[in-house]
């Protein structure tokens, strides 16, 4: 895995504590040509409650029929459906020629209310039953709220988090404008997967197809990053909304799986203390761990993060790295989206609009002449997204919130960039 780390301010003044920002970029190895891969494991948990009867269920089942054709005979697939009860139309197992799966899904029809919690738990059970030593991707599709069985967001997030520790990642696809975006976001956060918003069944099918493509192209599994602050560093904070657990002297970030050539960006704030000695000073140490799927070899890379301590007059002339500065503004915009979503939830629509407009102001104040081509594209795309969210809010605040939530996930938790040409 390729790794690049850079600070916005690599030089700090002696005896003058301040906060610096670290941008960490990861790129997974590529998978070249024909390759023999271990069997993939895919578990789908599908809402078949009555509200899915408007075409969403049919589109989702058509997508499942299509994805079966992408899987190899020895790949493992399972399907759990739920309404007020749970059924298992396709027990997790080898795909074979796919005919048994296609026959089973033709007999699935809309039912009653939404027992999402039991559906999730049953899907995790099925995934765990056949996963063996590999990892499993579980995808949950729903257009509603959990109103039977386990309904509490924190409990369902913990169920997904526990499954992730057992090698089962969980992604969610919310369909239409009636689903509980906070619940599906919590489940995907706990499960270390993706969170998608689909306006209709066809979009849901496209997201499901994308999940399968990513699964079949995985080149890295179980990536994690351990962060150990040095000495008197008072704090290191992660901007990305990823699962974090405490370790002795620091914390560990769960990055999860990456597909071939996928790129991820992590942004940290590091509170540098007053340092009395001139020269290089280590402010933290990081340890990246992952498993390469082609060889199933475990890899570990350790690296220090240093600042150069100089006299105050030398530090006065420094210029922040434009790439890190742009990423900081970009991630501040994602935080504003999350805060705006919280404002909408409590009925403060004016505050949500104020936050969106504040993000736009900060991004437009950046000097695009100092940016790479890809950074300019990212910033302009973010500005367009903010315009779309605010425009949608004039028509339907609920729809704007769902769009904002999905955009936050894509640009904060699964943040990546294409390879730059300049």
Molecular structure report:
The protein is of the alpha/beta class. 38% of the residues lie in helices and 31% in strands. The chain is built from 11 helices and 16 strands. The protein has helices at residues 56-68, 99-105, 116-130, 153-165, 181-191, 201-216, 312-315, 322-345, 349-364, 373-395, 397-413, and strands at residues 2-7, 11-13, 18-27, 41-47, 76-82, 86-94, 136-142, 168-175, 192-198, 218-229, 235-238, 244-247, 250-259, 263-272, 279-292, 297-310. The protein has a 6-stranded mixed β-sheet. Residues 417-422 have low confidence and may be disordered.
Question: What is the element layout, followed by pairings?
Answer:
Elements: E1 2-7, E2 11-13, E3 18-27, E4 41-47, H1 56-68, E5 76-82, E6 86-94, H2 99-105, H3 116-130, E7 136-142, H4 153-165, E8 168-175, H5 181-191, E9 192-198, H6 201-216, E10 218-229, E11 235-238, E12 244-247, E13 250-259, E14 263-272, E15 279-292, E16 297-310, H7 312-315, H8 322-345, H9 349-364, H10 373-395, H11 397-413
Parallel strand pairs: 2-16, 4-5, 4-7, 7-8, 8-9
Antiparallel strand pairs: 1-3, 3-14, 5-6, 10-13, 10-15, 11-14, 12-13, 15-16
Largest sheet: 6 strands, mixed
Tally of helical segments: 11
Name the helix and strand elements from N-terminus to C-terminus, one letter apiece: EEEEHEEHHEHEHEHEEEEEEEHHHHH
Fraction in helix: 25-40%
How much of the residues is beta strand, in percent? Answer: 25-35%
Overall mean pLDDT score? Answer: 89
Q: State the low-pLDDT regions, or none.
A: 417-422
Major β-sheet strand ordering: 2-16-15-10-13-12
């Amino acid at each position: 895995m390729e790794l690049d780390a850079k600070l916005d301010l690599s030089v700090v003044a002696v005896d003058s504590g301040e906060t610096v920002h670290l941008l960490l970029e990861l790129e997974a190895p590529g998978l070249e040509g024909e390759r023999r891969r271990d069997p993939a494991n895919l578990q789908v948990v599908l809402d078949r409650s009555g509200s899915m009867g408007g075409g969403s269920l049919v589109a989702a089942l058509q997508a499942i029929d299509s994805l079966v054709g992408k899987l190899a005979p020895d790949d493992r697939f399972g399907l759990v459906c739920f309404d007020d009860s749970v059924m298992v139309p396709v027990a997790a197992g080898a795909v074979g020629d796919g005919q048994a799966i296609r026959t089973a899904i033709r007999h699935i029809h809309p039912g009653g209310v939404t027992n999402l919690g039991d559906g999730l738990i049953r899907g995790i059970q099925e995934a765990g039953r056949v996963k063996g030593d590999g990892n499993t991707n579980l995808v949950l599709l729903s257009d509603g709220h959990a109103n039977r069985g386990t309904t509490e967001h924190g409990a369902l997030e913990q169920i997904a988090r526990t499954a992730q520790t057992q090698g089962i990642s969980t992604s969610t696809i919310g369909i239409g404008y009636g689903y509980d975006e906070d619940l599906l976001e919590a489940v995907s956060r706990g499960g270390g997967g993706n969170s998608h918003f689909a306006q209709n069944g066809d979009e849901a099918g496209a997201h499901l197809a994308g999940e399968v493509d990513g699964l079949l192209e995985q080149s890295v599994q179980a990536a994690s990053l351990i962060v150990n602050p040095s000495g008197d560093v008072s704090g290191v904070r992660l901007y990305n909304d990823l699962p974090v657990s405490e370790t002795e002297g620091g914390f560990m970030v769960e990055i999860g799986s990456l597909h071939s050539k996928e790129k991820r960006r992590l942004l940290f704030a590091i509170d540098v203390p007053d340092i009395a000695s001139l020269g290089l000073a280590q402010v933290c140490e990081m340890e990246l761990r992952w498993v390469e799927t082609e060889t199933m070899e475990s890899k570990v890379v350790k690296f220090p993060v240093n600042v150069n301590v100089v006299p105050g007059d030398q530090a006065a002339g420094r210029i922040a790295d434009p790439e890190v500065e742009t990423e900081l503004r970009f991630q501040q915009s994602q935080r504003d989206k999350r805060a705006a979503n919280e404002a909408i939830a409590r009925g403060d629509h004016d505050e949500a609009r104020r936050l969106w407009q504040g993000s736009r102001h900060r991004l437009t104040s950046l000097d695009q002449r100092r940016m790479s081509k890809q950074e300019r594209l990212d910033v302009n795309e973010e500005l367009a997204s903010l315009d779309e969210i605010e425009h949608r809010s004039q028509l339907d605040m609920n729809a704007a919130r769902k769009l904002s939530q999905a955009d936050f996930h894509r640009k904060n938790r699964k943040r990546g960039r294409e390879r730059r040409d300049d």
